[in-house]
């Protein structure tokens, strides 16, 4: 299978799986799964295959910086969504991503470890801001989403991954890395959750995505440290395993009742 065919097949398959999980177990689980490196890992693998292992390893630094920008967009959405409409909150979140990305990658250029130190508290804050208030009722979910729902989700996610990976040769490793952690699955999930089930469901997706971002961060750190030093298959396998281990505690915690 060619890389372009893999992009067209893998992305909608993952989008379908995450959307189905969200319908079965709720928006929080959907957000948590969408926050995993389900598209970040394929994009990094595509970069390594198309541009070389060193390119992908260097891009991982930009991805850690870009993950900080993604987290800022989550923060902007968490603050604006209860006060604004669907379009306005998404536009504000996108503006926050662009400004934070320009600041982190273009001005500060913190590098791997300082960017990691910036990302961690920002992700924790996003999780806290999106926690439901005590006594808040769970959002009512539709039994039958509209027929266009799933095709629209698949098309949006596939278009985004093709755009990000297609721009990589023209942007270089740094900017390609910044674009790689764009939540290709999360944002369509957030928008559709808001449109169908309300602000609470959308914030559940954001909270799950922010929790999953801890795993994405671990993935990129491992990719930068391992790729080019060991076999690429082993490097990606180890990176994905560490990422999953970082997300597992959130899944366990979800099964416990929140303290009053």
UniProtKB/TrEMBL annotation:
Residues annotated as transmembrane: 25-49, 55-79, 86-105, 111-130, 151-168, 174-193, 205-227, 233-253
Presence of keyword RNA-binding: no
Keyword annotations: Membrane, Transmembrane, Transmembrane helix
Domain of life: Bacteria
Entry protein name: Permeases of the major facilitator superfamily
Biological source species: Methylobacterium oryzae
């Amino acid at each position: 299978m060619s890389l372009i065919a893999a992009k067209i097949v893998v992305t909608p398959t993952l989008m379908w799986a995450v959307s189905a999980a969200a319908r079965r177990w709720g928006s929080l689980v959907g957000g948590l799964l969408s926050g995993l490196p389900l598209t970040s890992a394929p994009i990094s693998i595509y970069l390594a295959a198309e541009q070389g292992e060193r390119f992908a390893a260097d891009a991982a630094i930009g991805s850690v910086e870009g993950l900080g920008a993604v987290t800022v967009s989550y923060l902007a959405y968490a603050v604006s969504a209860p006060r604004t409409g669907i379009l306005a909150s998404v536009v504000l979140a996108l503006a926050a991503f662009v400004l934070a990305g320009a600041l982190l990658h273009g001005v500060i250029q913190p590098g791997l470890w300082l960017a990691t130190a910036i990302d961690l508290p920002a992700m924790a804050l996003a999780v806290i801001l999106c926690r439901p208030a005590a006594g808040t009722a769970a959002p009512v979910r539709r039994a039958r989403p509209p027929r266009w729902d799933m095709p629209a989700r698949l098309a949006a996610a596939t278009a985004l991954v093709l755009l990000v990976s297609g721009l990589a040769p023209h942007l270089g490793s740094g900017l390609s890395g910044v674009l790689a952690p764009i939540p290709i699955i999360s944002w369509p999930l957030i928008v559709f959750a808001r449109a169908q089930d309300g602000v609470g469901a959308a914030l559940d997706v954001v909270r799950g995505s922010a929790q999953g971002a801890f795993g994405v961060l671990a993935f990129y750190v491992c990719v930068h440290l391992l790729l080019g030093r060991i076999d690429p298959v082993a490097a990606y396998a180890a990176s994905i395993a560490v990422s999953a281990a970082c997300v597992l505690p959130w899944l366990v915690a979800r099964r416990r009742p929140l303290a009053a």
